[in-house]
Amino acid sequence: MKADETAPKAYRNYIDQFGRVVNNVPLTIGWSRDSRDSALVPSGIGSVRGYEPSSLGPKDAESDDAIGGSKLLIGNIELTFPLPKTGYDLHIAAVNSDRILRESTLAKAAQDKLKQEFLKRDQELQAIAKDLKTKSNKLDKNAATMSDLERKKAQLELTQLDADFQRKQREFSEDLNQRRNEELAAVLERANKAIKQIAEAKNYDLIVQEAVYVNPRIDITDEVLKALAKSNGSF
């Protein structure tokens, strides 16, 4: 009999190997030639459970110490079965946050939004870079035939243009990174709401987003992606 695939692996392995219930009838037989040298004393976890060690069998009348006997016969009947839904049986799932930020409809929409938002500034930087390259090539080509005054003027103009380009490029990168972080944080916030709804609907005890290894059996990233796409991020 197979266990439910959603059950923990340890529980499923037990069911697959032993079944849901195991009957066990252990029998212990012992004997000794001389009880004075090697007494056989029952009770304890290894023989008769529920009794303190050496609490059964013959005892000394004065000291009440167990003296054991030369023969021993113990019989037990056990019924063994696993208990799902106990403290050792957590319902756990995992979500790959990187995939959420790459593949979700919300993340793709955020990327398109940022592209449009910074398109004009990106084009301006490309135009400055092109102008800078053109003037640099022109100076290299005509430097030998230019007067000192013309050459110094061209070099100064080139230096100022390069400094302006470096400043605008730095500001562009800083602004883009800030806006990207804001948009990705919004995506994760909505994803977390979707994860919480899934957890409540399916009675998960724990859902992790960062792990060294995740068994594909407990990976619910695809389910979260579908939930985000279906709701269009409105949680």
UniProtKB/TrEMBL annotation:
Major localization listed first in the record, in broad terms: membrane
Keyword annotations from UniProtKB, A to Z: Coiled coil, Membrane, Signal
Record-linked SMART domains: OmpH
Domain Bacterial surface antigen (D15): 44-88
Name of a matching Pfam family: Omp85
Chain coiled-coil ranges: 139-201
Annotated compartments: Membrane
Protein family membership: Belongs to the Skp family.
Name listed for the protein in its UniProt record: Bacterial surface antigen (D15) domain-containing protein
Organism, scientific name: Linnemannia gamsii
